[in-house]
Design goal:
Strand order of the largest sheet: 7-6-5-4-8
Keywords: Proteasome
Largest sheet: 5 strands, antiparallel
Helix content: 25-40%
Number of domains: 4
CATH architecture of the largest domain: Roll
Order of helices and strands: HEHHEEHHHEEEEEEHEEHEH
Structural class: alpha+beta
Organism: Micromonospora nigra
CATH topology of the largest domain: SH3 type barrels
Protein name: Proteasome accessory factor C
Length: 342
């Protein structure tokens, strides 16, 4: 079966917006042009051009009255722009805009898990060619973390191979070895992750690339069970649920950033302080988290966490209060151990 030609017929929002921005100055330079000729120049069908012109009729300056909207006159199959609403020149990027767009596309091209990398590279080549010297500055884009490890993870996903990884879990402060069947490599919050079926946990897990201490591609193929489904990460990696421990803190002004960085279930003002409740993966992580904060933080709940923080703080203070042993050698000592050998 022959696929119908789609030359210039992309109806994506981005394609159409770019076409509309250039359509008015194009028609201004060619008053009375035939619609068929204009459609041929623009690489679209006559029907698409007519639909674009109908859309332009309701576009214009704020106020959107009769004197604000783009206007045009038709004479049979010919069209002439009679009011351009200020869109009288083709779209041009400033140097800063062109450079920002190139950097963003280069970053996207380096991002693991991008489905159509070739399309990104084609778009990047077109913009770099059109911008010319505007983007001639030596800009190199690299992902944070171990790029070789990310490439190894990506190769395993594309090759359908199982992996043996050594992984550090900061929440439990432990390192484990696991065999996983990778599903995909992706970027979330600027960090690379591999999502995989973990045979040890018998569930889908998300492993951060920079916490994988070692990775070995196995000869056996990845075997992903039917129930293994990728997670919806549109809201971020951490997904608080009702079965996770809930902690409540009283924080001062200097720690209010917590409410912006972590998903909180409750934030209430208590005079100059705030009462904050949030879910955590486990109390061990919460203990280390609270100990790393300033003195304006008090644990209100649960009692177990308050006791753990108190005990750890007392132990740390005791360690500082204990004088270091005096390792200096007394002047009358015999360092060679020869006393009495004479």
């Amino acid at each position: 079966m022959t696929r119908p030609s789609t030359r210039g017929g992309s109806r994506t929002s981005a394609d159409r917006l770019a076409r509309l921005l250039n359509l008015v100055p194009y028609l201004l330079a060619r008053p009375g042009i035939e619609i068929a000729e204009a459609a041929g120049d623009l690489g679209i069908t006559g029907r698409q051009l007519r639909e674009d012109l109908e859309l332009l009729w309701v576009c214009g300056l704020p106020g959107y009255g009769p004197g604000d909207l783009i206007d045009m006159a038709f004479d049979g199959d010919r069209v002439t722009i009679t009011y351009d609403a200020g869109i009288d020149r083709p779209l041009r990027l400033t140097q800063e805009e062109a450079l920002a767009l190139v950097v963003a596309l280069r970053m996207l091209a380096e991002t693991p898990g991008v489905a159509n990398r070739e399309a990104v590279e084609r778009a990047l080549a077109k913009i770099e060619n059109a911008a010319g010297d505007l983007v001639a500055a030596p800009v190199e884009v690299r992902l944070s973390g171990d790029s070789q490890r990310v490439e190894a993870l990506r190769a395993a996903v594309e090759g359908g191979r199982a992996l043996r990884i050594t992984y550090y879990t900061p929440a439990r402060d432990e390192t484990t070895e696991r065999v996983v069947d990778p599903l995909r490599v992706l970027m979330v919050g600027g960090r690379a992750y591999v999502e995989a079926w973990c045979r040890r946990a018998e569930a889908v897990r998300l492993f951060r690339a920079d916490r994988i201490d070692a990775v070995t591609e196995l000869a056996e193929p990845a075997v992903v069970p039917p129930q293994a489904q990728p997670h919806d990460l549109s809201g971020g990696v951490f997904r608080p649920s009702s079965d996770l421990p809930l902690i409540t803190l009283r924080i001062g002004r200097g720690e209010r950033w917590i409410t912006e960085y972590y998903p909180c279930e409750r934030v209430e003002a208590d005079g100059e302080q705030w009462l904050v409740s949030l879910r955590v993966t486990d109390l061990g992580w919460a203990r280390r988290f609270v100990l790393g904060l300033g003195p304006q933080v008090t644990v209100l709940a649960p009692v177990e966490l308050a006791e753990q923080v108190h005990a750890a703080a007392v132990a740390a203070l005791d360690a500082y209060a204990t004088p270091a042993p005096d390792l200096a050698v007394p002047r009358d000592a015999d360092p060679a151990g020869t006393a009495g050998s004479r």
